[in-house]
């Protein structure tokens, strides 16, 4: 499973593409699996997150591996860099030097996303204190219309979506870095270790052969080692 999270996973001209999608497709091909990109379901993040927590034989990507999540899933990766930030309109001139200063602003998050978890961990705010949406586009539009002051999300994804939605990203800025980490393929905890090890070995081969670097360059992404 995946969500719309460009440039890692997204739909263009009716086709699911992105750096994570291409990596998964290549891994499945090398495994000689019957599964293909056509078997990947696109779901809202919160729903997909619950499914991979509860159901065997499921996986979700691209997921930031955080301290809170690390023991909830089994992991294959890393597959890309992750920079979760707070983004604001430049004209508001918001300056944040420590987590407690975040509390005075209206903050948009995506349900169960790493950005939401990081804001809660760093500020002590609860889910009820946040403006929770099912997808990033909703919060980007709220930010543009001044319905929220800050949006907590992956920096690369916000910039990509803004361009696609006709919003000039130059009018926005990162005002606080919540976390710099890595994206992974996340699997249900009951996934056999043999499968996880096999997929990790194949991913490592793809990296060593240069195919991984080519995919990252195609989508103008930082390389996650």
Protein model, in words:
Helix 3 (114-123) links the parallel strand 5 (107-110) and strand 6. This protein folds into two domains: 10-81 and 181-218, D-Maltodextrin-Binding Protein, domain 2 (3-Layer(aba) Sandwich), CATH 3.40.190.10; 82-180, D-Maltodextrin-Binding Protein, domain 2 (3-Layer(aba) Sandwich), CATH 3.40.190.10. The protein is α/β, with parallel strands linked by helices and 225 residues long. The chain is built from seven helices and eight strands; from the N terminus they run ββααβββαβαβαβαα. The strands form two sheets. It has a six-stranded mixed beta sheet with strand order 3-8-4-7-5-6, with helices on both faces. A two-stranded antiparallel sheet has the order 1-2. The model has no long low-confidence stretch (mean pLDDT 95). The two termini are 23 Å apart. The radius of gyration is 17 Å and the shape is globular.
CATH class of the largest domain: Alpha Beta
Number of helices: 7
User: How many independent structural domains?
Assistant: 2
Overall morphology:
globular
Q: Helices and strands, in N-to-C order?
A: EEHHEEEHEHEHEHH
Major sheet strand order: 3-8-4-7-5-6
Domain Solute-binding protein family 3/N-terminal: 1-223
Protein name: Amino acid ABC transporter substrate-binding protein
């Amino acid at each position: 499973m995946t969500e719309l999270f460009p440039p890692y996973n997204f739909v263009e001209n009716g086709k699911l593409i992105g750096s994570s999608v291409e990596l998964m497709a290549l891994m499945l091909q090398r495994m000689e699996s019957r599964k293909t990109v056509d078997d990947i379901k696109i779901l809202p993040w919160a729903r997909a997150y619950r499914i991979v927590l509860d159901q065997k034989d499921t996986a979700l990507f691209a997921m930031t591996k955080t301290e809170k999540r690390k023991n909830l899933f089994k992991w294959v990766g890393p597959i890309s860099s992750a920079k979760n930030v707070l983004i604001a309109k430049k004209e508001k001139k918001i300056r944040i030097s420590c987590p407690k200063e975040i509390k005075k602003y209206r903050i948009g998050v995506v349900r169960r996303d790493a950005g939401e978890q990081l804001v809660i961990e760093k500020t002590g705010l609860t889910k009820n204190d946040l403006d929770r949406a099912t997808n990033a586009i909703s919060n980007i539009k709220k930010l543009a219309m001044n319905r929220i002051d800050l949006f907590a999300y992956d920096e690369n994804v916000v910039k990509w979506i803004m361009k696609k939605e006709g919003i000039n990203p130059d009018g926005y800025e990162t005002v606080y870095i919540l976390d710099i980490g890595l994206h992974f393929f996340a699997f249900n905890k009951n996934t056999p270790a043999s499968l996880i090890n096999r997929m990790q070995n194949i991913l490592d081969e793809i990296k060593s052969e240069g195919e991984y670097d080519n995919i990252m360059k195609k989508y103008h992404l930082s390389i996650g080692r």
